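Put briefly, the fold is written as integer tokens. One such record reads:
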Amino acid sequence: MTSATASLVVLGASGDLTERLLLPGLGSLLAADSPRPVQLLGTGRSEREQNDWRDTVKKAFDDAGATGEAARAVLESTEYVQADPTEAEDLQRLLDACTGTPIIYFALPPAITITVCDVLEGMDLPDGTILALEKPFGSDSRSAAELNRKLVRIVPEERIHRIDHFLGTDTVLNLLGLRFANRLFEPVWNADNIERVEITYDEDLALEGRAAYYDSAGALVDMIQSHLLQVLAVFAMEPPASVDHVDLRSVMAQVLRATEVEGGDAAESSRRARYTGATIDGEEVPAYTQEEGVDPARNTETLAEVTFTVHNRRWAGVPFVLRSGKALESNRKNIVVTFKPVSALPAGLHGQAQPDRMVIDLKQHRIALELTMNGSADPFTLEQVQVDTELRGADLTPYGEVLRGILANDPTLSVRADVAERCWRIVEPVMRAWRDDLVPLDEYPAGTSGPKSWE
């Protein structure tokens, strides 16, 4: 075994996540500059031809522009191994096939992940083995804590990577420079100047065949509990002493320890809904309850909105509204910062001063400032103007950024154990209120902006 080589063992390689996100992410990394040589092993319970697996990997690499020597080396050596990861004998076969330090990537549902960890706990793993786990981490704070205790019995905490690819999104990373390197914004990033923060991730796609996972999760767990709370933490954190993994993850954890549902009242501070059937651009979209694999009795929401507050000196009293949903009118993925109005205007200025806003687009990698200015026709009449610019785009996809950290065993963009548990504790009051039907399950036609009552 060569320590310089990493053997990326993807458990659940036949799943949608591997083909749609993980392999293109690896391709973007290889197209840039992988930190070390990589051997790729895909595995799953289903049978698969080697040529079919290689064709899938090659297409992902080609689409990412990974055509150089590093990509060719991965393609030549990659294998698909039919195996059941819940069986010790099969796991040992996978480890024996590794030519480098194993990185075991769990592209698996939480229940299977726990079973695999039970098996790994009784095995003698090669030195340096790394574990990389997809969210959700458990199904509540208790199961997340149990999983964390189990993981550290397998490998040390510094070799555990809990994946949240949102932390690898270049727009989220650009928040660091925007906040801490600009004299214009750094002094006003607080409750004295900011009225409200909205973090939204709306999708126009419907279920897209993901019922097996989504119907047991819903929008709250799928997006808010994990991804959007991480974005909140980056947005609201105190200035770190440095951007190494210790300092950066510590200030993010501090924010989340201070975060809770607004007013401590989950019923008053949350809303939920699910889409009904509609015709969009001539195409029939079935109601969520009619989607294959959905159990209507679960009352799974496809749109969730929760208002949180951060109880510290910087953010006291500022509502943070986190929202995510599917089958909506448009793809709206942004952070909207509404600033407080000025205390007074000079006499003689006409018109209503609008709240100044900053809109950070998480998908288009743009930032826009909506500012109140003198009017073009009458200089004494106020009007709103917009100034916008494109943010620096990254060479890597979010999964490429995450994989770079895993291959280098740099946990900066990985979720810390206590944070994974804390995110569950933050949303558990909402989960209980919804489970007890204290919050109505509204409906909205697919392709609209949401329930009319929410407007």
In short: The mean pLDDT is 91. Residues 167-454 form a domain with the Dihydrodipicolinate Reductase; domain 2 fold (CATH 3.30.360.10). The CA atoms of residues 235 and 316 lie 15 Å apart.
